[in-house]
Amino acid sequence: QVQLVESGGGLVQAGGSLRLSCAASRLPFTDSVMGWFRQAPGKEREFVASISWYLKIDYAESVKGRFTISRDNAKDSVYLEMNNLSPGDTAVYYCAARGSGRSRYKYWGQGTQVTVSS
Fold this sequence. Notes:
The chain has strands at 3-7, 10-13, 18-25, 32-39, 46-51, 57-59, 67-72, 77-82, 91-99, 107-108, 112-117. With 118 residues, the protein is mainly β.
């Protein structure tokens, strides 16, 4: 079955940076739109960024200019470079995948915790 495994979360001070990685297996990666979502305590899960196989990229307004999503099709991996982090970015970050012709993300990783201290 499809697996998405995130890594790279941790504790960082405000203003710092982290790079999240997501490795996919048994997924038609080059036909998939890859996304990052996050869920803060007591809040609903929210969209962060997405990237298609032909590199169409979308960001949530709250992360534009600070976060960069990228993918490496040769490694079936997607990344999220996060800069100038603030405590408001504290959340569990999830990697997700959907088919390029689909609107719903079908596959999800287990999540990685990002904590930003003030």
